[in-house]
Design a protein that fits this description.
Number of helices: 14
Number of strands: 22
Largest sheet: 7 strands, mixed
Structural class: alpha/beta
CATH superfamily of the largest domain: Ribonuclease Z/Hydroxyacylglutathione hydrolase-like
Number of domains: 2
Shape: globular
CATH architecture of the largest domain: 4-Layer Sandwich
Helix content: 25-40%
Strand content: 15-25%
Radius of gyration: 22 Å
Length: about 475
Amino acid sequence: MATITFLGAAQKVTGSCHLLDSEATGQVLLDCGMHQGGDAIERLKSEDFQFSPSQISAVVLSHAHLDHSGLLPKLVHQGFRGDIHCTQATRDLLEIMLKDSAGLYERDLERENLRRARRGKKAIQPEYSKRDVKQVLSQCVTARYGEKVQLSEDAQLVFHDAGHILGSSIVEITLHEQDTHKRVVFSGDLGKKSAALMKDPEMLNKADVVLMEGTYGDRNHRTLDDTFEQLRDILHDAWNRGGNVMIPSFAVGRTQEILFHLGRLLKSGELDSWQIFLDSPMAIEITKIYDQWIEILDHKDTDPLFNGQSQPLQTFLPNLQFAVTPDESMAINKIRKGAIIIAGSGMCTGGRIRHHFKHRIWNERNTLVFIGFQAYGTLGRILVDGAKRIRMFGDEYIVKANVETLGGFSAHAGQTELIEWAAHFSNKPRIFLVHGEPRALDGLSRKLWQEHKITSEIPCQGQSIAF
């Protein structure tokens, strides 16, 4: 008998973490992600593991986004010493993302403890350190897509391309128990068909248990062509109003995709007058990682811009400037019009984008463009929901900038694509919908039944199922 316990991203979008427990594997974590939104110090302090980290035999990581990987350093800090299985591209991205996250956390903690010291309060002890990040990276064991990996003598792991971001995987684990074979499939985050740079998610046809994400389970995205036209119109309007454009963007995936589409506009002669800034040291480093893995990206997208040659992504944007240092970032504030500023964080929970808001969100000439999902409770979600006033850095700001959302650039599959992926299984597995807000998961569950008579279950936090 094997069990799966849903410890994170159950009726929520972030914090992916599921515990597989079987005789064949022992205790194996599928992802170990952090919840996003709110204060990082309080959030990390409250992220208690519902298991003993030292008893976990292995972690299988679907991809590098922090809501799937961000608690790995804390897991190691508390005694986990097993293998962390992932693709090599995921391992490369982890090195940048976890180091950056640790640096931000340590700086926030240092500032908070300085305030506490001035008030005579006890210092907060760190939940993990950069040393733990180094340990995480040393425990990574990488595999190629399609390669069979022995999790144990009686359990086998295979990664399949999820088409979400570089290195993202659909996880397939086969358990051999008492002359029976049980197959568990965890979708991770499924990419959108025809997304720029990424290949389409692989289809699997057999499983006993499927854990499938449902971030956009209640809706479809606009087509890529329509979204591209919308981007063109937004930039045209922003130029005519004499303003600047701010794009909060996730360092991995979304940044590289928006650069690709800006390159398309430049090639058609529609972006010559704009200055483009990538104002995120981490996104700059991630883009270099994408360049190293250019051969595994979707060549039907890259070949028209690169003329069939493998070249760095930024070569087709000669008006792209990298802002690495704080001084280079602050210099952008002097530009009154004609700047496209791509900066993190993607949900506006921190990073340099908030400083650009400070200088521009109150000006009606400017435009704010969201190109990714905004989780409940984040500043990005508050703005998407139409807030007229926000608080940052202890001050209140009036929101007068034009706020736009480009859903078609999402890195997640929409409802129709999720249904198609689920319907591809020929042996009617038990399907559990995770990684989505209740409304999205309910909508997806109804559609699966209406269109294909597929039953699905929506687990709650902490629920365990046996199979």
